[in-house]
Amino acid sequence: MADLSLHTYQEEVVQRPLQGENVIIWLPTGSGKTRAAVYVAKRHLETTANAKVVVLVNMIHLVEQHYNNEFKPHLGRDYDLVPVSGDSVEKDFFGRVVQDAEVVICTAQILHNAMTATEESKRVELSDITLLIIDECHHTHKEHVYNKIMRCYVEKKLQGERRLPQILGLTASPGTGNAKILDKAVEHVLQVCANMDSAIVQTERHVTELKERVRRPTKTFDIVDQRPQDPFGDHVKRIMQLIHDFMQLPRDFNLRKYGTQEYEADVVILNERGVREDNRMWAQCALHLRQYNDALLINDTLRMVDAFRSLDAFYRTKVNTAIDGTDHYLLALFQENKAQLRTVAEDARYENPKMFKLESVLLQQFGPATESRAILFSKTRKSTHCLLDWVSTNGALQGAGIKAAILTGSGIGLSHMTQNEQKDTIRNFRQGHLNLLISTSVAEEGLDIPQCNLVVRYGLLTNEIAQKQAVGRARAKDSRYSVVAQEGGKELCRERVNDHLEVLTDTAVAKIQEMSSAEFRSKIAKLQRNGMIERQLAESRKAEKRLSNAAAKVGLLCRNCFRPVAFGSDIRLIDNEHYVNVNPDFRRHYKVGAQVTLDKTFEDWEPGCQVLCSNGNCNMHWGHEMKYKKVVLLPRLVIKNFALETPEGRQTPKKWKNVNFTVEPFSFEEYCQDNFQDLFD
Fold first, then answer.
1. What region, left, alpha or beta, does residue 567 occupy, with left being phi > 0 and alpha being psi -120 to 50 degrees?
2. Tens digits of residue pLDDT in 520-568
3. Which end of the chain is more exposed for a tag (fewer CB within 10 A), N or C?
């Protein structure tokens, strides 16, 4: 068994949790928070009868990292440990896993699913757990799955439940919750403490040792002057103005500056208004304007050719999909301007100066005779793919020996990575087969790569927690943290604001720690009671909203062509997760597309083909078929791809939980009796 000795600052912060208190350990990235948690878990297992430790993480790759690097080496000889993530077979009988194992490391979603499951083999109660460790616990806020779990905990506590686990949270920063003044920052940290039902502790007597052990990288602002000429962006803006003129918007609707997040928000609202008011011209123009605006944002951060390719890819999906004159106009407008856009995008004289600065930053760190490892953080999956293409085709970067790969979140779609792809990429980076990760925020938290000596943040607007997490990825000696940004740009401003917010967080926590135990507990109890009342009222309002309309009186319309295709009474809910249409007549409204593939399997269902609107050239993507219990093939629908026709007017919900009618649970037996009657005769 590996040595489990602690540094003195770690010994200091574990004293209160060793006494059984609920505590948030606040230590910087790279200081060994997880090691402190392992120490607490070991003592808990040694001293608690029928101990059951569950470790929650918020990202899949952290399950194996914590299991292999920390918990198994120190606890594996004496205790039964099981890692469980979305691709683990153990998730399908998670309740039994928790019963049999002594330490379970899993994603928070798996525990939450188990807490709401009805099947005995999957069901887990909080009373089954004696110590609950929550990694990156600053996420225990609003609708994060951590907070859903802890809401259950707090409500049980307020109802007098005694059999509840001890809570141990880990964080590098509780953050300020976007607060800019001290009192509001204190309120935010207190709310996190209330949500976690925990006090917050840090080292006070061994700060010097902590600073010596965890050295911050050298921070540089690599500033770029404003672009002298931007003919590509200017041309895109002229096209957008033509679309504005075509729409003839009412005077009460103003669209803000092109190429901004604010403009994107405006056209999203315009699209929803177009759907609600049965104005397909507005709805469709808004969708196309969003693509042009996205091209401007890409042009501002990446290469012109990346912006052009983004537009071209969008319009390739629109070929032969025209429904009315609006579609014909928008398609023709792009085709008329496509050649000129491509020509300008390929003109090196007007290339984005940020790319040259980024190249310079990377070349300062990499070379044929150097052993460097870097993470380049970018905002979106699309931008990581563009940056990888740039690195792979850049002669200077290839000559410097850069071997790059992307790291993004898992999910469905071409731009998503599978869980196995994530694991392979991280392993290859740790082992040195790769030396540059081009990553979204998925790598900001918890990724343990001590050899990383350069972190670059590129085109990012994030809060102080994400910034601090990114800084913590550069852990090697003489490491560097670079912010590549335009002079006077929003990224530079946000980075400097975050520096101030980090100080504000420290001050807020210090103010809380000055409170007496009685004052702190009183404030926490008040926040918890108020929170429970607010949730009950919110749930009551949601229930009233769902009862306000009979499901049979709510119509579902294709979000693209506005054709009525179903009623709310056709929808059923499977396993509290999948919304399906059980009306066999629905089949005449859709056609199937490509087979959907997932990187994980499920116990009761498997994906089928894409479900697409069959109205003329519409082809709106509605969801995909799912084969349930190997017998029933049902269309699983995504509500954001539909509009609702209700007695109060047309609505555009983004999530099923926001619909204003009640969805009945799916009965497998009832469905089979109704549709396969010959089997029951």
1. beta
2. 999 999 999 999 999 999 888 888 877 888 999 999 999 999 999 999 9
3. C
480-486 and 454-458 beta bridge pairing: parallel
Strands 555-558 and 166-171: unpaired
Tally: H helices and E strands in the chain: 23, 24
d(C-alpha 359, C-alpha 479), whole Å: 18
Q: 579, 639 in Cβ contact below 8 A?
A: yes
Listed in order, the ranges of the chain carrying CATH 1.20.1320.30 are 231-350
Q: Which two tokens stand for residue 29?
A: 């990235």
Distant-in-sequence, close-in-space partners of 267: CB < 8 Å, separation ≥ 6: 255, 286, 287, 289, 290, 293
Q: Where in the chain is the domain with CATH 2.170.150.30?
A: 551-679
Each residue's pLDDT tens digit, 276-321? 999 999 999 999 999 999 999 999 999 999 999 999 999 999 988 9
Sequence letter at residue 531: G
Measured CA to CA in angstroms, residue 479 lies from 123, 334, 482 at distances of: 46, 46, 10
Confidence bin at 165 (pLDDT 50/70/90)? very high
Strand pairing partners for 605? 628
**93 falls in which pLDDT band (50, 70, 90)?**
confident
Q: Which fold has domain 551-679?
A: 2.170.150
- CATH code for residues 218-225+353-510: 3.40.50.300
Looking at the DSSP bridge assignments, the partners of residue 557 are 564, 643
**580 closest CA partner among 536, 633, 616:** 633
Across the strands, what pairs with 645?
Answer: 555, 650
Amino acid symbol at 644: L
